[in-house]
Every structure is written in C-alpha cells, then in structure tokens.
User: Fold 7,8-dihydroneopterin aldolase from Noviluteimonas caseinilytica.
Amino acid sequence: MSDKVFIEGLQIDTLIGIYDWERRIRQPLRFDIEMAFDNRVPAASDAIEDTLDYKAVSKRLIAFVSASDFGLVEKLAEQCAKLILDEFNVSHVRLKLSKPGAVRGATAVGVIIERSRA
Ligand SMILES: Nc1nc2c(c(=O)[nH]1)N=C([C@H](O)[C@@H](O)CO)CN2
Assistant:
C-alpha cells in the first residue's frame, strides 16, 4: 500500500539553531510531510472521520514547532515524526525539514527522515 496523505510547504517560525545569534531570533522552517494512509476507506465513505485530517496534523505541528526550542534540525525532525506516529493513525511518515537561507548560496538545507511505528 503506497497511498499517502501529504502536507507540502508548511511554514512555521521557531527558535532553532546552534549559534548565539540564532538563540535570539525566530526563523522560518518549511515542512514537507508524507504519511501512509489507505485511501480506499475515506474514498468509500466520503467522510472526514474516516480519513487522516491534514488540517488537524498541520495545526498540531504548528502548535508544537512554534513553542519548541532546539539546536539541531535533526532533533526537531525526530520529535515531529514521533508526534505524528504517536498521535495520529499513521504507520509510516516521511518528513523533510528545510531551513531556508541558513547557508549562503543554498536555497535551503535540512534533513529528510522516514520513520515507522514500532
Ligand atoms: N546537520 C546540521 N548541520 C547544521 C545545523 C543543523 O541543525 N544540522 N545547524 C547549523 C546552524 O544552526 C545553521 O543552520 C546556521 O546557519 C549549522 N549546521
């Protein structure tokens, strides 16, 4: 089963970074997320209760990330993947966390991780 619900280009401002100057400002991060989900169930019922609500996931991530304070994008990415697996009906998640403008000359830098429920 390769069906997915996705969230693309979710931008959230937060405290992130290892340098002193980064501890004093909020920076924008971008999230691209793919979550395994069987499309056939909500397709049969056409009911929001039967699907993975991408708005609910987005709102939860916005609340968590905007209140977070980490040094590395690796740490934040891991926490976000765990939150999705723990709190929503998702067995596998692919999460790309981009930090735009962190490196001169690069559009964005960051990490891509894939995690499954234990
Ligand atoms: N693999 C990583 N490398 C770097 C990170 C990071 O979070 N993961 N962070 C920084 C700085 O905070 C940088 O983003 C400031 O421009 C450097 N390298």
In short: The domain at 4-116 is CATH 3.30.1130.10 (GTP Cyclohydrolase I, domain 2). The chain is about 30% helix and 35% strand. The beta strands are 4-16, 27-36, 69-70, 92-100, 108-116. The mean pLDDT is 97.
